[in-house]
Amino acid sequence: MGDLLAFDRRDLQLDSGAALLSGFALQFDRALLDAVAAIASAAPFRHLETPGGRRMSVAMTNAGRLGWISDRRGYRYGDTDPLGGVAWPAMPALFRQLASDAAAAVGFDRFEPEACLVNRYEPGAKLSLHQDRDERNLDQPIVSVSLGVDAIFLWGGQMRGDRVRRFTLHHGDVVVWGGPARLTYHGVDTLVRAAHPLTGELRYNLTFRRAA
User: pTM score > 0.85 for this model?
Assistant: First the structure.
């Protein structure tokens, strides 16, 4: 892969340890979307159930050694897809390199993700404020890549009741958070109906994590 920093972009510091990298993944958008399609052909998108029995509005699948799972038994990572009982699709090399380079751009060197959660948003889907705390090692950052229609990213604080800021995420944007920001509450507001030339009405989000 070439130098991901070889173009002019606008970075936005969200907090200490957290930044929005504008357009960081843009030059790889078609390859990323092709990889998403290949992953979904092996491990189809599905709407998971929360431990409380609520159907999630965001459809998801996984790639990598581990995949994130939610059902009546709780939130966890597993090395096999519950739908087929086989290993999750391998994480593409492009995914790994993009996540590692984005993390390094925010000061987190040598990030090696084990899991990539692939989320698919349709109009009306949303992701409520939450912390990513199902990982065993919270010293590693989260890297989140946006593809498709714009979304409103909700960025809160370390407590659920802290003030929430709103940022528009465009196609190709990447958000990285770790260190003192690792357990920041965050989410995605209800996706409004819009269109993107590569994804139609859909938004895809790739979330990279070191899970074990």
Answer: yes
